Amino acid sequence: MSNSVASRLGEFVRPTGEETRLDISFPDQPPRIAIGTRTAIIAAGVLAVIVGLMLSHLLFRTGDGALAPSAPAASAPAAVAPEAATSGGTIVVSVVGAVVVQGLVTLEPGARVADAIIAAGGLLEGADPAALNQAQLLVDGQQIVVPAVGAAPAPPAGSAGSAGAAAGGMVSLNSADAAGLSTLDGVGEATAAAIIEFREQNGGFTSIEQLMDVSGIGPAKFEAIKDHVTL
Fold this sequence. Notes:
Residues 179-198, 209-228 form the Helix-hairpin-helix DNA-binding motif class domain. This protein has 6 helices and 5 strands; from the N terminus they run H-H-E-E-H-E-E-H-H-H-E.
């Protein structure tokens, strides 16, 4: 009987050849989507870009999550301030008369008549130091006339007198004011102003001939006044 049962079971499980023709559907399973090769390449490229951006973002972050400080921008070099001029600059004065070396001397601001005399080599024998106020402060362009004993007293240092005349009735180019310069033959207000402007721009006159460099003074006018002026 066991053989009969086994034979019957074998008939049930024996392939009939109809199994491949069964049309089995699975209604609960979503349909499959077909992706082309080109679409797959584009998708892969987009994914690579996204991953690259994420990595770049992480590289700019520190361990605690804060953004890493960016390198400071190179600042423009600070403008170099010009070297400060010496306080007050220097002054140039003319020392004439009874001194060892007559002419222009350069001194520091705050210098006095006594300092100018020392810079000129000192007094000659027979000079009259009492005729000068050696404690007087000097100004740029001033002239100091050191007289001899018994000579007519010189006008105050740096002063041109009421008419701007220096010792001996001469007009000082380096110290006379506009009124004093205007006393010269052919020198009016405009020319006097030009003389003053020239000496201020050039630190004073160093020679009488420099009058030829002043605007408004030609050869004829120079010949008329050269014997009536001094430094």
